[in-house]
């Protein structure tokens, strides 16, 4: 118990009490906290200082690793003789081995110590993010398998490092995925500094792997050179390429390895971005103690009741998008996509993006009308969500501006160029409006859950009756359930109805816009306009920088929109 000691500026040496009749002189009295409070307060302050020092040191470690790796990558790009791709692979292999050692130590040592994990962050590592981690990790492993197969086919002109590097990559991806799947929610309470340094080293390694994937177009150039040689042979001309010894033999396996590598290449960059975001949340949660108020928040459950128009419009957009995607893929796998398929692809976007923008603007206006209080609780996951939404949007926005400059400088009056120009402008506006809608909704207090006992009993009664329904009573049961659905839907205010409809529609739209570029539809690289304007290598770097960020943005937007839908 905290005690208050009362003292004067000139204390009496012979008496410890003030006369009862004497009035206290407030100008000469000050209050001191007890020794226990002062000692505990110094401990808390020291703990905060050590936490800041640990974060600073681990951050400096990651910064130096990233700068070292970036220097290697820059030297490889601008000076192929002094620093080669094999040298960069050796550096990254050393970093991955160090990360593997720390991850194994964390799994077998740190996390199993007594009182190591007293709290788990319920906001960190949601199931959709861990599912995406598992999906992209599996495709990244498959990508390295294709790379090994491609190197084996060209074993006569490939170095041994090109076989070792993908093998270490497979082990690294598998171990890191297992680690993040089980421990992404941990708030570790022991070995703070070692854990922070290990997490930051792993983040830096993933960033360097992402930078290498963005800038390394050696295999793509090699495949394109081989295809150009084949075309020249068919035309009766002498091949221009100097890499004749590395020409892919006319086998089915070689063709499969080539197409599989190109198709799966964006998955690896996406995987690195997901890992960086999850590892950063773990780093912020090291030593964090979650209060009872923060841990015992109301958890809303996902329910489809109360939405009609959003799913209807969203499913329509998904079905049309799948049809466009399949037609584009058929054209792309058979031969080079023709003019009409590009027109159809961009026309779909030009129709869908304005609908999404209008829905996001209406949702933002509803947020302003409902006047809900802001959620001011400290939440590292939500803060990271906002940063990732803003940062990931820069990928597609940057690519759109590059496309706008290329089109305006060439021929904006052509039909396809006009569609690409409209697509680029609408994409920028859609990203901005959707970000405002999601971020505004994430920072507001959720609606109180619908806990009406009458509705609950009614739905339980209906579920019990549906098990014993006969064929003759089927129509009556369907009508009764429909009336109950309408009754539940009518209890929502019009603002909550509109927010749920808008959020569900945007969820489905972002899902189809995530599927199309993820699984092979890359018209920004295949239409040839920007590639001929900026050059192959420059546009390759721009696309491999912006496209994974765009895919990550769609995936992360789905998570934020689902949270808005559930909270409404």
Automatic annotation (TrEMBL):
<dbReference type="GO" id="GO:0015252">
    <property type="term" value="F:proton channel activity"/>
</dbReference>
<keyword id="KW-0812">Transmembrane</keyword>
<feature type="transmembrane region" description="Helical">
    <location>
        <begin position="348"/>
        <end position="366"/>
    </location>
</feature>
<feature type="transmembrane region" description="Helical">
    <location>
        <begin position="386"/>
        <end position="408"/>
    </location>
</feature>
<feature type="compositionally biased region" description="Polar residues">
    <location>
        <begin position="1"/>
        <end position="10"/>
    </location>
</feature>
<keyword id="KW-0813">Transport</keyword>
<dbReference type="InterPro" id="IPR004878">
    <property type="entry name" value="Otopetrin"/>
</dbReference>
<keyword id="KW-0406">Ion transport</keyword>
<keyword id="KW-0472">Membrane</keyword>
<protein>
    <submittedName>
        <fullName>OTOP3 protein</fullName>
    </submittedName>
</protein>
<keyword id="KW-1003">Cell membrane</keyword>
<feature type="transmembrane region" description="Helical">
    <location>
        <begin position="420"/>
        <end position="442"/>
    </location>
</feature>
<feature type="transmembrane region" description="Helical">
    <location>
        <begin position="163"/>
        <end position="181"/>
    </location>
</feature>
<feature type="transmembrane region" description="Helical">
    <location>
        <begin position="262"/>
        <end position="283"/>
    </location>
</feature>
<feature type="transmembrane region" description="Helical">
    <location>
        <begin position="304"/>
        <end position="328"/>
    </location>
</feature>
<feature type="transmembrane region" description="Helical">
    <location>
        <begin position="193"/>
        <end position="213"/>
    </location>
</feature>
<feature type="transmembrane region" description="Helical">
    <location>
        <begin position="533"/>
        <end position="553"/>
    </location>
</feature>
<keyword id="KW-1133">Transmembrane helix</keyword>
<keyword id="KW-0407">Ion channel</keyword>
<feature type="transmembrane region" description="Helical">
    <location>
        <begin position="128"/>
        <end position="151"/>
    </location>
</feature>
<feature type="region of interest" description="Disordered">
    <location>
        <begin position="1"/>
        <end position="24"/>
    </location>
</feature>
<comment type="similarity">
    <text>Belongs to the otopetrin family.</text>
</comment>
<keyword id="KW-0375">Hydrogen ion transport</keyword>
<dbReference type="GO" id="GO:0005886">
    <property type="term" value="C:plasma membrane"/>
</dbReference>
<feature type="transmembrane region" description="Helical">
    <location>
        <begin position="56"/>
        <end position="82"/>
    </location>
</feature>
<feature type="transmembrane region" description="Helical">
    <location>
        <begin position="88"/>
        <end position="108"/>
    </location>
</feature>
<feature type="transmembrane region" description="Helical">
    <location>
        <begin position="502"/>
        <end position="521"/>
    </location>
</feature>
<dbReference type="Pfam" id="PF03189">
    <property type="entry name" value="Otopetrin"/>
</dbReference>
């Amino acid at each position: 118990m905290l005690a208050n000691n009362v003292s004067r500026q000139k204390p009496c040496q012979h008496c410890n009490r003030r006369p009862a009749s004497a009035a206290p002189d407030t100008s000469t009295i000050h209050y001191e906290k007890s020794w226990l409070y002062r000692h505990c307060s110094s401990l808390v302050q020291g703990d905060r200082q050590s936490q800041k020092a640990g974060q600073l040191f681990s951050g400096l470690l990651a910064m130096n690793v990233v700068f070292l790796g970036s220097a290697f990558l820059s030297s490889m790009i601008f000076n192929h003789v002094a620093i080669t791709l094999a040298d960069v692979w050796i550096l990254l292999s050393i970093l991955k081995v160090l990360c593997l050692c720390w991850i194994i130590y964390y799994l077998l040592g740190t996390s199993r110590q007594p009182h190591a994990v007293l709290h788990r962050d319920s906001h960190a590592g949601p199931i959709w993010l861990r599912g995406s981690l598992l999906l992209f990790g599996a495709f990244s492993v498959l990508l390295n398998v294709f790379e090994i197969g491609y190197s084996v086919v060209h074993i006569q002109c490939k170095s041994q490092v090109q076989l070792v590097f993908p093998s270490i990559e497979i082990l690294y991806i598998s171990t890191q995925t297992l680690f993040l799947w089980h421990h992404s929610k941990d708030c570790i309470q022991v070995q703070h500094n070692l854990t922070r340094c290990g997490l930051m080293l792993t983040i830096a390694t993933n960033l360097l792997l992402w930078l290498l994937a963005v800038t390394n177009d050696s295999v793509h150039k090699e495949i394109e050179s081989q295809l150009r040689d084949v075309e020249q042979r068919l035309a009766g001309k002498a091949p221009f390429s100097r890499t004749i010894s590395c020409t892919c033999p006319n086998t089915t396996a070689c063709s499969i390895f080539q197409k599989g590598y190109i198709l799966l290449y964006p998955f690896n960059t996406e995987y690195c971005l997901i890992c960086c975001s999850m590892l950063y949340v773990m780093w912020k949660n090291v030593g964090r103690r979650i209060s009872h108020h923060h841990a015992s928040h109301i958890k809303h459950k996902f329910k489809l009741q109360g939405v009609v128009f959003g799913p209807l419009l969203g499913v329509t957009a998904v079905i049309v998008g799948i049809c466009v995607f399949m037609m584009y893929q058929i054209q792309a796998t058979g031969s080079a996509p023709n003019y009409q398929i590009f027109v159809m692809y961009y026309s779909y976007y030009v129709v869908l993006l304005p609908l999404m923008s209008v829905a996001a603007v209406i949702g933002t206006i509803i947020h302003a009308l409902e006047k809900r209080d802001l959620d001011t609780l400290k939440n590292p996951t939500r803060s990271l969500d906002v940063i990732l939404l803003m940062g990931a949007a820069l990928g597609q926005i940057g690519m759109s501006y590059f496309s706008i400059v290329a089109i305006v400088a060439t021929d904006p009056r052509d039909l396809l160029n006009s569609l690409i120009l409209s697509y680029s402008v609408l994409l920028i506006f859609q990203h901005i409006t959707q970000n405002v809608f999601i971020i505004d909704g994430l920072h507001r207090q959720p609606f109180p859950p619908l806990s009406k006992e009458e509705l609950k009993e009614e739905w339980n009664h209906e579920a019990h009756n549906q098990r014993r329904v006969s064929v003759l009573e089927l129509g009556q049961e369907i009508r009764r359930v429909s009336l109950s659905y309408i009754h539940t839907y009518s209890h929502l205010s019009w603002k909550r109805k509109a927010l749920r409809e808008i959020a569900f529609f945007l969820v489905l739209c972002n899902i189809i816009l995530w599927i199309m570029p993820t699984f092979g539809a890359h018209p920004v690289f295949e239409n040839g306009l920007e590639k001929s304007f900026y050059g192959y290598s420059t546009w390759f770097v721009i696309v491999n920088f912006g496209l994974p960020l765009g895919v990550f943005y769609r995936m992360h937007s789905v998570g934020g929109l689902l949270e808005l839908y559930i909270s409404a």
